[in-house]
């Protein structure tokens, strides 16, 4: 009996291999299938995880094959885990729900140029931006931006940023101050997006959206972009929550986001003006999901899955999400460690930090290969230190204290 | 509301619980934390205790899930030390693994596949193999270089040492030392190190037999005689020698001789004694060297040369060569006339500066010993202990085997190579009419890097020989047959018969006509099938090395020295293994013995068919063989079965 029932239940597809996501959906007791690179097939078989091997390259004429495969398993919903799977989820969900627009919406999230344009057209405040197709475009943009800032000869330039149109977070990001910086760019980096520099404190939000409505909004405070952040944000940032929430809803409406999680980044100036940076519709980096779970006690992976499913009821969501900010048991933070040496000789974990009551755990070992890999974005940190405590200022100060510390020698 | 602080012990327990609760596929996410907390706990003895208290839960929780340590019954003691000494996460997993084993050994954890006894013997072997961790050297340098993972490993071993009896370990170590010394290697550093470390166990509760054996070994490398024990300082010892009368000196000489005879190990005092006699009372030297009648005769005829050799080459730092000198005289090496000038030449040879640098290790420099002294000491050792030549940590079994062969049957050629290598830093060999110069070659089997813990002769020759051998093999690459067929006779010399067989097809890699191979070996080598032809020179053969489970580890080169009946009338094959550690366990009950079955110094032996089952190539004389069809089918089948169930599993057998 039980079996036939399972067979009839709708199956959720996780796009991308993430043990955390798999564990989360497994604990939800809902049938699922994982779509991931073929090298995980053996592991999946051994552990009786329903698995479809797939290489997420560009969408192409073969994409239909994946739909057929998943459909045969009675899959009715696709949840993206990684940046590269967002448009796949869009394409699949468009077919599952027979709503082609879902796919087009997902593309908005995968092309930073389109994304900015859409935001701007919807009255969301963004910096000046343009797509660049050659180095000449970058020279011109840098010049024009600084002219607009009424810089005269000899004044230092205001920097601009360039980044790939479709990569996660900080991958491929460059800060351009002058012509030399442009010379360092590769032809392969084009086309890319150029933006004027936005001052202010950067932070990210994780908004869990169901039926077009933000059901839970987490604000993650960045102590240093890509290195350290904590959840929930400090009172001085949380003070702006109503404004932030309004902005997020504007974003959700503009991008016609109906279901799932979005992870936008903003800059907030001291007077509360919010500038939109970018938005992704996937699991955020920086261990933010883990921090949310530590602070609030619910699994953000499960939240993403529940919110991605149109069939999830309001009651279920109400029961699932706790109250924002006030229900947090404390501040949960993570400090990501990148070796600053070429060859790692030893781990240098400070005794004082281990004894700090805010210190929870870390996952650093001397890696088997002592040669340090080149950094791509903020993607491949070598270790993470987790903190938990009651005071956001103290949290911030510990992170700043160890920002420059060499954990690897 | 303060965040509660939990003790590391408690955290560890919680971490294990979380891991335990996780489904198998998710375990890897929670293992890291358990490892981290384990590292923290392992910083103290109490923490070690806490790890042990939880060890019976490791398997159930999934601490080893998905990794090489998962199945306790598949673990191997020789690999433990290496993992513990690695930086990184493996060292802590290895530590957990030992704790699990200890829990099994003490009966606190019942394991389906590993018994208490097996676990205990596993740990005893681990301790015996890693004496440096059990008794860490107390020098400052060692400390500074160690690092926290080494300290952690040492703490683990202290813990294990306290939990296990030293008795069993002592037995293992003594057995190991005995096994190694009985083969009489030239390089004894490893043995000395073991003795030095095991010495500390003399104070612990160990059985009398082990204690006696251990202290005898310790005496042999330190103060083997009553007088040396009294005058531990070499200078005082030498001054005292001057005051001793003849009977006292004779007694001293006998005491040294007895110690060396029993162990093959020589103490520095023995060198001082030898040098003293060399100056003051040369007639007592045959006693001090424990010479046979042949040796004494040879000594008497060559007094002057031996005097010079001792003067130049025998020092406390090179004392081990005294053993080689004695055996060289006993072998009658100096009775061959051309050898005398060839050795004398080495005393004054103008040694190439590069070679000088590699010969003069720091301790020799400190002792102001000349490069010629080191070279002669090494030459004497090789000529006295041809089967004591070892390849060290290099994959250069071929070169070691060559030096050993020449030291037995081609002394003139060996001395020529030594002189050429030391003076010119080059050797040339003619291969199929073309001269190959080692100095013109880039790479050898060892990739151009030779590990320097070798005897002086090997230091001089192996870099060249290795390259030449490699070059010869390269030149035979496209012939569609195993190149050893051509390379061996020209590399080793005329002692190698021209017939050659290798059953691995070089094109397909398949095993071809295995039964024919077995029959041919019996018909050419087994006295009951080969028409009574005796082996004259050692036969270089290729064998598969297998581990204790019979699994293929790799290819190796050894030499068959002789074939003879043992005491029980069983035919055995006596062979030389250039790794100087012949008594390894090859699995399937095949364990070469190094003594007790009629082995000579440096030989290992196996029953005939067992050895054949590991062989893949040999040379033979096609004019001296019996009829292959006389070899019984059952015999061939028996060998083939053993072969197929061991290394044969890694090969495809052509039908």
Can you characterise this structure?
The complex is a heterodimer of chains A (409) and B (655). Chain A has 409 residues and is an alpha+beta fold. Helix content of chain A is 34%, strand content 23%. Chain A has helices at residues 2-8, 19-27, 41-46, 63-72, 86-96, 101-108, 112-121, 135-148, 179-183, 235-238, 241-254, 288-296, 300-308, 314-320, 351-355, 392-403; strands spanning 11-15, 32-36, 51-53, 75-80, 129-132, 160-164, 174-176, 192-196, 201-210, 213-224, 228-231, 260-268, 274-280, 331-337, 359-362, 383-389. An 8-stranded antiparallel β-sheet of chain A has the order 13-12-9-10-11-14-16-15. In chain A, strands 3-2-1-4 form a 4-stranded parallel β-sheet, with helices on both faces. Chain A is globular and about 70 Å long. Among the domains of chain B are: 8-164, no CATH class; 169-219, no CATH class; 499-650, no CATH class. In chain B, the strands form 2 sheets. Chain B has a 6-stranded antiparallel β-sheet, sandwiched between helices. A two-stranded antiparallel sheet of chain B has the order 1-2. Chain B starts with 7 loop residues before the first helix and ends in a 10-residue tail after the last helix. With 655 residues, chain B is α+β, with helices and mostly antiparallel strands. In chain B, helix 19 packs across helix 21. Chains A and B meet through helix 2 of A and helix 2 of B. Chain A: GO terms for molecular function: ATP binding; ligase activity; metal ion binding. Chain A: This is ATP-grasp domain-containing protein. Chain A: Residues 116-309 form the ATP-grasp domain.
């Amino acid at each position: 009996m039980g079996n036939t029932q399972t067979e009839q239940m709708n199956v959720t597809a996780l796009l991308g291999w993430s043990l955390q996501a798999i564990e989360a959906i497994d604990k939800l007791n809902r049938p699922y299938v994982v779509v991931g690179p073929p090298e995980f097939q053996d592991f999946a078989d051994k552990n009786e995880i329903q698995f479809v091997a797939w290489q997420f390259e560009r969408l192409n004429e073969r994409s239909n094959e994946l739909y057929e495969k998943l459909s045969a398993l009675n899959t009715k919903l696709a949840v993206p885990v990684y940046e590269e799977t967002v448009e796949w989820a869009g394409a699949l969900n468009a077919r599952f729900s027979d709503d082609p627009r879902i796919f087009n919406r997902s593309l908005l999230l995968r092309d930073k140029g389109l994304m900015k344009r859409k935001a701007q057209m919807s009255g969301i405040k963004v910096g000046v931006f343009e797509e660049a197709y050659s180095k000449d475009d970058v020279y011109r943009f840098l010049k024009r931006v600084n002219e607009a800032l009424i810089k005269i000869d000899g004044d230092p330039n205001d920097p601009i940023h360039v980044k790939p149109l479709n990569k996660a977070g900080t991958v491929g990001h460059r800060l351009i101050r002058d012509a030399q910086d442009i010379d360092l760019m590769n032809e392969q980096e084009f086309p890319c997006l150029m933006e004027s520099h936005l001052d202010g404190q950067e932070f990210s939000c994780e908004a869990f959206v169901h039926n077009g409505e933000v059901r839970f909004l987490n604000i993650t405070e960045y102590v240093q972009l890509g290195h350290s952040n904590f959840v929930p944000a400090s009172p001085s940032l949380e003070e702006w929550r109503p404004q932030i929430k309004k902005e997020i809803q504007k974003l959700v409406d503009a991008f016609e986001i109906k279901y799932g999680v979005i992870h936008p980044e903003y800059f907030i100036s001291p007077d509360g003006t919010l500038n939109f940076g970018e938005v992704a519709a996937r699991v955020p980096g920086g261990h933010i999901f883990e921090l949310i779970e530590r602070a609030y006690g619910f699994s953000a992976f499960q939240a993403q899955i529940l919110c991605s499913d149109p069939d999830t009821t309001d009651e279920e969501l109400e029961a699932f999400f706790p109250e924002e900010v006030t229900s947090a048991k404390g501040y949960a933070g993570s400090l990501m460690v990148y070796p600053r040496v070429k060859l790692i000789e030893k781990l240098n974990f400070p005794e004082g930090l281990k004894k700090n009551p805010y210190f929870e755990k870390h996952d650093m070992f001397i890696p088997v290969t002592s040669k340090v890999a080149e950094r791509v974005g903020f993607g491949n940190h070598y270790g993470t230190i987790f903190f938990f405590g009651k005071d956001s200022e103290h949290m911030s100060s510990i992170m700043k204290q160890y920002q420059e510390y060499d954990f690897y020698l | 509301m303060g965040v509660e602080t939990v003790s590391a012990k408690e955290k560890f327990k919680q971490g294990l619980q979380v891991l335990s609760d996780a489904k198998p596929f998710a375990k890897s996410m929670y293992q890291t934390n358990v490892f981290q907390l384990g590292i923290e706990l392992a910083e103290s003895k109490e923490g070690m205790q806490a790890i042990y208290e939880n060890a019976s839960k490791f398997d159930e929780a999934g601490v080893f899930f998905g990794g090489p340590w998962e199945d306790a019954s598949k673990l191997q003691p020789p690999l433990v030390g290496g993992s513990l000494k690695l930086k990184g996460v493996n060292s802590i997993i290895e530590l957990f693994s030992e704790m699990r084993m200890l829990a099994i050994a003490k009966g606190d954890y019942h394991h389906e596949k590993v018994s208490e006894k097996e676990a205990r013997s596993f740990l005893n072997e681990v301790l015996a193999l890693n004496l440096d961790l059990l008794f860490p050297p107390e020098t400052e340098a060692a400390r500074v270089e160690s690092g926290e993972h080494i300290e952690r490993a040492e703490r683990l071993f202290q813990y294990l040492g306290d939990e296990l009896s030293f008795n069993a370990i002592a037995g293992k170590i003594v057995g190991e030392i005995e096994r190694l010394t009985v083969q009489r290697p030239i390089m004894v550093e490893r043995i000395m190190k073991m003795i030095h470390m095991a010495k500390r166990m003399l104070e612990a509760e160990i059985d009398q037999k082990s204690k006696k054996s251990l202290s005898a070994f310790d005496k042999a490398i330190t103060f083997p005689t009553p007088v040396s024990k009294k005058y531990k300082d070499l200078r005082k010892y030498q001054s005292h020698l001057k005051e001793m009368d003849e009977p006292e000196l004779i007694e001293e000489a006998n005491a040294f001789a007895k110690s060396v005879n029993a162990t093959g190990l020589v103490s520095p005092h023995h060198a001082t004694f030898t040098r003293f006699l060399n100056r003051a009372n040369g007639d007592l030297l045959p006693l001090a060297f424990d010479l046979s009648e042949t040796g004494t005769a040879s000594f008497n005829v060559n007094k002057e040369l031996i005097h010079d050799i001792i003067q130049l080459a025998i020092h406390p730092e090179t004392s081990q060569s005294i053993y080689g000198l004695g055996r060289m005289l006993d072998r009658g090496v100096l009775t061959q006339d051309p050898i005398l000038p060839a050795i004398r030449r080495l005393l004054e040879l103008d040694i190439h500066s590069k070679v000088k640098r590699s010969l003069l290790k720091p301790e020799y420099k400190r002792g102001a010993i000349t490069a010629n002294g080191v070279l002669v000491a090494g030459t004497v050792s090789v000529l006295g202990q041809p089967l004591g030549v070892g390849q060290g940590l290099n994959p250069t079994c071929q070169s070691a085997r060559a030096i050993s062969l020449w030291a037995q049957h081609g002394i003139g050629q060996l001395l020529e190579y030594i002189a050429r290598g030391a003076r010119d830093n080059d050797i040339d060999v003619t291969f199929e009419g073309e001269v190959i110069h080692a100095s013109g070659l880039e790479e050898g089997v060892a990739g151009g890097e030779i590990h320097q813990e070798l005897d002086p002769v090997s230091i001089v020759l192996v870099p060249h020989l290795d390259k030449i051998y490699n070059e010869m093999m390269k030149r035979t690459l496209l012939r569609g047959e195993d190149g050893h067929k051509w390379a061996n006779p020209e590399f080793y010399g005329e002692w190698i018969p021209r017939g050659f067989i290798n059953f691995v097809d070089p094109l397909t890699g398949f095993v071809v006509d295995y039964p024919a191979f077995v029959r041919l070996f019996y018909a050419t080598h087994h006295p009951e099938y080969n028409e009574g032809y005796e082996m004259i020179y050692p036969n270089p053969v290729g064998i598969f090395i297998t581990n204790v489970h019979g699994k293929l580890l790799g290819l190796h080169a050894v030499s068959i020295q002789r074939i003879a009946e043992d005491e029980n009338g069983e035919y055995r094959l006596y062979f030389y293994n250039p790794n100087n550690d012949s008594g390894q366990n090859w699995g399937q009950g095949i364990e070469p013995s190094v003594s007790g079955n009629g082995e000579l110094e440096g030989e290992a032996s196996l029953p005939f068919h067992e050895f054949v089952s590991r062989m893949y190539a040999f040379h033979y004389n096609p004019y001296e063989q019996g009829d292959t069809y006389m070899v019984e089918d059952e015999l061939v089948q028996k060998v083939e079965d053993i072969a197929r169930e061991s290394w044969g599993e890694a090969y495809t057998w052509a039908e």
